[in-house]
Specification:
By secondary structure, the chain is α/β, with parallel strands linked by helices. The protein has one domain: TIM Barrel, CATH 3.20.20. It is built from 8 helices and 15 strands. The strands form 4 sheets. It has a 6-stranded parallel β-sheet with strand order 1-2-3-4-5-6, with helices on one face. The protein has a 4-stranded antiparallel β-sheet with strand order 10-11-12-15. Strand 13 and strand 14 form a beta hairpin. The chain is globular, with a radius of gyration of 21 Å. It starts with a helix and ends with a strand.
């Protein structure tokens, strides 16, 4: 990692100093687990404190290496034990114990995000937040898209509105409905819908893969990256890249979502700190749709083709 990932992250931060880095472990070291392996198993009770210290040291070392962390989750997908790549099942009670031990040791600049798994088990982060010793250190809830419905983000947010919300993992790939819906489907379900359910940010999995959807260590064999890197070193953006770009090129840090209505297409509107406003819209239907964008007495009307995406930026009143 020191020779490969860290130099790339430093280079990325040089290109974009505003880049935020989130870390998520896939497994504790094998000797800390009841499986004595990186594969499967759970954390032994006697190693809760050691694992918390391990994570705290990792966060400090990353900062010293020039890659300060913005956030850290306790375990990637803690309700899943993959059979062919590193993973670890970690119950809400166990995560709460680790968080309580980690919180006092972690640099104050690093936020702890709880859960980091699917929408189908909102009771899991709620159980951790019911533990006062852990809840005091949790700054947000991280979600994945592979199970359940996205309104779980809003349900947990309504109970804990002081916490941030992030969609920290979802993958495009060669399956339905991702294949047929293309960029319009990705923009609707993984950019617009998360923002309408309190997400402050969205991450896709993976960043970059080759033409054979690799390299990967077990797991998904037909996921795709945000970009596809070819053998000659060139790269091609995928639909996931274009979906993200429709938001990231226009929505600025510090933007807030503002009220918007209408069901002709899927849409979300935000206000940037400079006063500009941004609409991201996706027509996932098989036919064109007429759209009216009205802000006060001023309206813009156009027709969105079937399976298309549009971003509109205009000047409003500075916040």
């Amino acid at each position: 990692m020191r020779d490969t990932i860290v130099p790339l992250l430093r280079q990325a931060r040089e290109l974009n100093p505003q880049l935020s880095v989130m870390a998520s472990p896939w497994s504790a070291p094998g000797w800390m687990k009841d499986s004595d392996s990186l594969i499967k198993g759970t954390l032994r009770p006697e190693y809760i404190d050691a694992f918390a210290g391990y994570l705290a040291r990792f966060a400090r070392d990353m900062g010293a290496a020039g890659v300060p962390l913005f956030a850290l989750t306790i375990q990637n997908e803690p309700s899943f034990e993959p059979g062919d790549y590193p993973g670890m099942r970690l119950s809400a009670k166990q995560r709460a114990a680790v968080i309580a031990a980690l919180g006092p040791r972690l640099p104050s600049s690093v936020q702890i995000l709880e859960w980091d798994h699917n929408w189908d088990k909102p009771e899991e982060p709620l159980a951790v937040l019911a533990d006062p010793a852990a809840a005091r250190y949790v700054r947000g809830i991280a979600w994945h898209c592979y199970g359940g419905k996205i309104d779980a983000q809003s349900k947990v947010h309504d109970l804990h509105p002081q916490l941030d919300v992030y969609l920290t993992e979802c993958s495009g790939g060669d399956w339905e409905p991702v294949r047929s819906n293309g960029i319009s489907g990705q923009t609707s379900s993984l950019v617009i819908a998360p923002l309408r359910n309190w997400a402050r940010g969205v991450q896709f999995w993976n960043l970059a893969l080759d033409d054979a959807a690799g390299p990967h260590l077990g797991g998904c064999g037909n996921c795709r990256g945000i970009i596809t890197v070819h053998a000659d070193g060139s790269f091609t953006p995928t639909d996931d890249a274009w979906a993200l770009l429709h938001a990231s090129r226009f929505i600025r840090v510090g933007a807030v979502r503002i009220g918007s209505s209408g069901n002709m297409v899927d849409q979300v509107v935000v206000a940037n700190p400079d006063g500009s406003r941004v609409l991201v819209a996706a027509n996932t239907r098989r036919n064109a749709r007429k759209v009216s964008l009205c802000d006060g007495a001023t309206c813009l009307r156009w027709t969105m083709p079937a399976r298309s995406v549009a971003t509109v930026r205009w000047q409003g009143t500075p916040r």
